[in-house]
Amino acid sequence: MSSQNINSESQAPPRTPLSDEQRRFLDSALRVNQAGELAATLIYTAQTPPVVKAHPHLRSLMKHMYDQEAGHFKTFNELLAKHRVRPTAMYPVWQAAASVLGWTTGMMGREAAMACTEAVETEIGNHYNGQVRELFRWMQELKDKGEELDPELKVLIDDIKRIRDEELEHLDHALENDAKEAKPYEPITDIIRYGCRSAIWISERV
Ligand SMILES: [Fe+2]
Ligand SMILES: [Fe+2]
């Protein structure tokens, strides 16, 4: 039986406590990631009915991407609870925005839905890469001082890398399924990418 013991309390003292600045970075990173993954599940939930109705062969792909997003969301929910991070105050706003975005692009058709995934995953891939780089930098700094990173943070780096790879896999699926054929491609992807960057910026702060 696999144990997912969220209440388990480690008695081991932290090896190197995080600085206040690092703690703030981690809080805002986890908060943004959780909000983003919630949005991703809602986008696919709204897109799937119209896309699958018009293109039944996409059912398994849409489900596969949704299932992975639901897994990402679960991971960050658990991390928020574990590190006692509050969710973003914008949570209800992002919920509504993601559903509207998913519904709109789904109704526009398969190509627009895929262009939405392409745009979102491009921004999210960059976003997760930024976090991985920062956490690696902490690890390197400690290593230079002969210290070690908290093992929990090593697990976090691995989680973020795995999730990033799955997002980039979604990006590939979107390209294979004619995201670039969306009309009008540039306004759609520009608006969505700008929206993602703004949502990230805001959620990091509130
Ligand atoms: Fe995701
Ligand atoms: Fe994704």
UniProtKB/TrEMBL annotation:
Taxonomy, superkingdom: Eukaryota
Principal subcellular localization: mitochondrion
Lipid bilayer topology: Peripheral membrane protein
Pathway of action: Cofactor biosynthesis; ubiquinone biosynthesis
Subcellular compartments: Mitochondrion inner membrane
Keywords recorded for this protein, A-Z: Iron, Membrane, Metal-binding, Mitochondrion, Mitochondrion inner membrane, Monooxygenase, Oxidoreductase, Ubiquinone biosynthesis
Cofactor note: Binds 2 iron ions per subunit.
Role noted for this protein: Catalyzes the hydroxylation of 2-polyprenyl-3-methyl-6-methoxy-1,4-benzoquinol (DMQH2) during ubiquinone biosynthesis. Has also a structural role in the COQ enzyme complex, stabilizing other COQ polypeptides.
Protein name per UniProt: 5-demethoxyubiquinone hydroxylase, mitochondrial
Gene: COQ7
